[in-house]
Design a protein that fits this description.
Layout lengths: L11 H9 L4 E9 L9 E9 L4 H10 L8 H4 L3 H17 L2 E7 L10 H16 L9 E5 L9 H14 L8 E5 L7 H17 L12 E5 L46 E2 L2 E2 L1 H13 L3 H11 L2 H15 L8 H14 L2 H35 L7
Parallel strand pairs: 1-4, 3-6, 4-5
Antiparallel strand pairs: 1-2, 2-3, 7-8
Helix pairs in contact: 5-6, 5-9, 6-9, 9-10, 9-11, 10-11, 10-12, 11-12
């Protein structure tokens, strides 16, 4: 069988999904450092490796052929010299075989999020929006995510599905986007995501760039606050970054982020009291670019935080009243639909009413300017005296 089917695929439900999926498929894995397990700075990251539907069986076969096994875990392989050689060969292969790779990273874990549940939802929400915003035959609509350990994260897979459902309901992602959880033992294509997120972690945590370097040309790295820290976007199917600085959005739920100074160690994101180069670069870019309103709306929906959405709406209202600021119907529609999805009816009604009032004010101001234009033009004539 061609396409996505072949030896090594042992998940029957996923095989059925492959038959009904026309576009590329995204394979997703995570890597993180928990805030309460050490004095090192915590972070959360997710990587999605996208494989063409007509290439899945071939890529799966090669990924199993290189180590000569039906089992793989990158962290375990790294413990031996032979394993490191296999890792390099597999990453080099993925760099040429995958269509593109997207990484989301959250480097400031909230104090009220010790289990990193919100961090995961932020990363998954940002990742899903970026992955699926394409259209046509090259659009990703199926996300295959490694199942979480039920003992460590009870209900984790259901939480992911709930995030995707809310994003669909709010119109933030396409209504046909589907997420499926499975194990790498049943779908070895998840090994690609494991390798990618492991390589990114090495780069982020200890500045070991050699592993992620082969993936750089096919990768887009997004800070969940909206800053794009990739050197370039190499995939033609993804929209290019908009020019100019984005509007920074603050929100109540973000208060108290970060853990302050961290203790340096051999495996820390801190070296001799200063952050790793990769992490410091992310912070600089994130601080400069900030978040767009649309990005903050997506994060509010993914984390199911109405106050966060209200803050985004207030920021949009303030931004829209600035001189010469054009209206943004799509952003207003996103705000209104998100409010209907995650807010109580009275709260959603307030957001809708505020947006309606803003449109009325802007329309009245535009009409007033039009009426005054002839008078202003006459007043500017040379020698005119009132």
């Amino acid at each position: 069988m061609g396409g996505m089917h072949g030896f090594g695929l042992k998940d029957r439900s996923l095989a059925d999904l492959y038959r009904t999926t026309s576009g590329p498929v995204a394979f997703i894995d995570e890597s993180y450092r928990e805030p309460l397990h050490s004095d090192e700075r915590p972070f959360y990251s997710m990587s999605a490796v996208i494989v063409g539907r007509d290439q899945g069986a071939l890529v799966r076969d090669v990924l199993m052929d290189i180590p000569g096994s039906t089992y793989w875990h990158t962290t375990e392989a790294y413990r031996t010299p032979a394993g490191k050689r296999v890792i390099k060969e597999m990453i080099d292969y993925i760099a040429g075989a995958a269509e593109y790779n997207i990484v989301t990273v959250q480097t400031q874990i909230r104090r009220d999020d010790p289990a990193m549940k919100t961090a995961r939802h932020e990363c998954l929400g940002a990742l899903t929006k970026e992955l699926t915003r394409g259209s046509g035959p090259n659009a990703v609509r199926l996300l295959v995510v490694e199942s979480r350990n039920a003992r460590s994260h009870p209900g984790g897979d259901a939480d992911d599905a709930r995030v995707i459902k809310q994003l669909r309901s709010a119109g933030t992602v396409h209504r046909h986007v589907h997420v499926h959880h499975t194990s790498p033992a049943k779908e070895p294509l998840l090994w690609a995501a494991d390798l990618s997120v492991w390589a990114f972690r090495r780069n982020l945590a200890v500045g070991d760039k050699q592993w992620f370097a082969p993936l750089q040309d096919i990768s887009t790295v997004l800070h969940v606050d909206g800053a794009d820290v990739s050197v370039k976007r190499s995939n033609p199917h993804l929209p290019q970054q908009s020019p100019g600085a984005q509007q920074t959005v603050s929100h109540e739920s973000g208060h108290g982020r970060g853990r302050g100074p961290a203790v340096a160690s051999a495996s820390s994101v801190v070296f001799d009291g200063s952050e790793s180069e990769a992490l410091a670069r992310i912070r600089r870019i994130a601080g400069t670019a900030g978040k767009s309103i649309d990005q903050e709306v997506a994060l509010a929906v993914a984390t199911n935080e109405p106050r966060r959405l209200v803050a985004a709406a207030n920021a949009y209202l303030k931004q829209s009243r600035q001189p010469n600021m054009p209206s943004q119907p799509r952003t207003e529609a996103a705000l209104a639909q998100a409010a209907q999805t995650i807010m109580k009816p009275d709260g959603a009604a307030k957001v809708t009413a505020a947006l309606k009032q803003l449109r009325g004010q802007l329309a009245a101001e535009a009409e007033s300017r039009t009426a005054l234009a002839p008078q202003q033009q006459r007043d500017r004539r040379p020698g005119y005296q009132p």
